[in-house]
């Protein structure tokens, strides 16, 4: 079977201090979805934490304007239980790919399993997570995540 794909991409700059984000509209066969790859600033002090929270709000705004299902991927520099993260989930209706698979701490890699989950894959409800796992170290301070998703969320 031949898989036909197409995509339209743009680079988004949230602020002077942020790493650019990549926003893509993807069409895989007859299914269209949005992909947003992000890396908000690390909250190393109160000013940077406020900037990170602002970037998460900007991400929420982008997701709220999607016309198709989508996913947000990246090092969000925030944990599953932080107020800024919980607001992002609530305002977008996205769910974390870890749901049902455990916390899977991804940072700091040398100190796992005592780490925290900073790296995330947030999905529209139309996506199904088939598998998610921490992968072997790649000489980074973050442990890579392997995530397999499909369109068409299964009902339980």
Strand content: 25-35%
Specify Rg, calculated over alpha carbons: 16 Å
The level-1 CATH class: Alpha Beta
The ordered string of helix (H) and strand (E) elements is EEEHEHEEEE
Count of alpha/pi helices: 2
Task: Describe the 3D structure.
The chain has 156 residues and is of the alpha+beta class. The protein has a single domain, classed as Endonuclease/exonuclease/phosphatase (Deoxyribonuclease I, Chain A, 4-Layer Sandwich), CATH 3.60.10. It contains 2 helices and 8 strands. It has helices at 46-64, 83-92, and strands at residues 5-12, 21-28, 31-38, 70-75, 95-96, 119-123, 127-134, 145-151. Strands 1-2-3-4-6-5 form a 6-stranded mixed sheet, with no helix packed on it. α1 packs parallel to α2 (83-92). The longest helix is centred in the middle third of the chain and has 19 residues, at 46-64. It is globular. The model has no long low-confidence stretch (mean pLDDT 88). Pfam families: Exo_endo_phos (PF03372). Residues 28-142 form the Endonuclease/exonuclease/phosphatase domain. This is Endonuclease/exonuclease/phosphatase domain-containing protein. GO terms for molecular function: catalytic activity. It comes from Candidatus Venteria ishoeyi.
């Amino acid at each position: 079977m031949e898989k036909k794909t197409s995509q339209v991409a743009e680079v988004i700059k949230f602020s002077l201090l942020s790493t650019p984000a990549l926003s893509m509209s993807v069409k895989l066969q007859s299914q269209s979805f949005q992909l947003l790859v992000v890396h908000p600033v690390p909250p190393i002090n109160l000013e940077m934490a406020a900037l990170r929270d602002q970037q998460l709000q900007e991400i929420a705004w982008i997701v709220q304007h999607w016309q198709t299902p989508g996913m947000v991927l990246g090092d969000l520099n925030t944990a599953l239980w932080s107020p800024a993260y919980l607001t992002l989930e609530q305002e977008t209706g996205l769910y974390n790919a870890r749901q049902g698979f455990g916390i899977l701490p991804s940072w700091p890699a040398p100190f796992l399993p005592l780490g925290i989950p900073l790296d995330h894959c947030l999905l529209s409800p139309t996506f199904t997570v088939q598998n998610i796992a921490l992968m072997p170290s790649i000489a980074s301070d973050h442990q890579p995540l392997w995530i397999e998703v499909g369109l068409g969320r299964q009902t339980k």
